[in-house]
Amino acid sequence: MASTSVRIDRSTHDELKELARSLGTTVGDTVAIAVKGLRQEMIGQDLHRELSTEDTEWLDADLG
Predict the structure, then answer these.
(1) The domain containing residue 51 runs over which residues?
(2) pTM for this one?
(3) Within-domain flag for 23
(4) Number of domains in the chain
(5) Residue 52 falls inside a structural domain
(6) Burial class (CB in 10 A: 0-12, 13-18, 19+), 30
(7) Can you give the chain as a three-state secondary structure string?
(8) CA distance 35 to 30
(9) Is residue 55 part of a domain?
(10) pLDDT band at 39, cuts 50/70/90?
(11) 6 partner at 20 to 30 Å CA-CA among 27, 31, 43, 50?
(12) Nearest CA to 31 among 11, 16, 45, 53?
């Protein structure tokens, strides 16, 4: 797997190391878990939003 470096402040790195230790993973895997969680949260917020009139009309369309 190819990798790259990301610059973060020392306190964030320390938090990542502690999270990784508590999860039994590497710092890199912990970042991947966090990114996945953030993406899921954003999808959840999008799904929770009120439907627009266009969305409702599309969902209620007669398909027959």
Answers:
(1) 29-59
(2) 0.73
(3) no
(4) 1
(5) yes
(6) buried
(7) CCCCCCCCCHHHHHHHHHHHHHHCCCHHHHHHHHHHHHHHHHHHHHHHCCCCHHHHHHHCCCCC
(8) 9
(9) yes
(10) very high
(11) 43
(12) 16
In sequence order, the 6+-apart residues with CB closer than 8 A to the CB of 27 are: 13, 16, 17, 20
State the residue for tokens 């020392």: 10
Where do we find the tokens 């027959």? Answer: 64
Q: Which amino acid appears at position 48 of this protein?
A: H
The per-residue pLDDT for range 14-25, each reduced to its tens digit, is 999 999 999 999
Instruction: Determine the Cα angle at 42 with ends 61 and 49, to 5°.
Output: 40
Residue 1: per-residue pLDDT: 75
Residue 38 falls inside a structural domain: yes
